[in-house]
Amino acid sequence: MGSMLKNSLKDILTKEEIEKVYSSFDIIGDIIIIKIPEQLEGKKEIIAKILINKIKTVNTIFQQISAVQGEYRIRKLNFLAGINKTNTEYREHGCLFKVDVLKTYFSPRLSTERLRISQMINENEKIINMFAGIGTYSIILAKKNSDCIVYSIDSNPDAHNLCVINSKLNKVQDRVIPILGNARSIIDNQLKGKATRVLMPLPEQASEFIDSAIMALENNKGIIHYFAHIKANSKLHALEEGKKNCHNNFKCYQYRIISGRVVREVGPRIYQTVFDLKIL
Q: Are 60 and 84 in contact (CB under 8 A)?
């Protein structure tokens, strides 16, 4: 898609300007979210119109004008072209999700990771998703594993409401249990010792919730999928630093690393990693 955009801009932008155009952007349903370099701020409407004309399934273009931020992990958006709306429908791995790109956190770039974890689930598992958002991980896990139960926690009321809607939409409302609130408090008050597996897909803050994740496991034993942002010079270096990060944060517990991988690069020399840990 990035090369398509750059090729389409050849007769409109200079060679130097084209080199500054970001080669990737997010397509969520019929909405595109794109970052515009500061040097091309004056050309953003042109870039948006090219995109909306070239990708026929897209109706709306937004410019991302802030990083993901705040407790709810949302980003500021600036409308550029098409229909000015923030709601869309997104399909992934046989599931359908209603998404509000302004009020909730969502990334299509985690699609492979969601499928990977769904393929690791054993029979009759009880899973706690500590940072569930609109329910994407939770619903895919439940859809792919017909006998698991997923407690789907999030503190954002808009994300919680969409998780309720999406669970019904995908006919897993009997096994995906959306819970509104802070993961630490919810586990402490309702879910101690309930889980065979815990997901921690909040790489910015997951390390602050490790004690709660352990507490959520039955007899303090089970599987944790631990996400982190790691500063490193390469993917290989990120894996090495990710292992150190795991040791520093889980050193009070007995654990074994089942596997680890770099999910994606999220910034210059910043990588999102996930480690699958067995707590012994």
A: yes
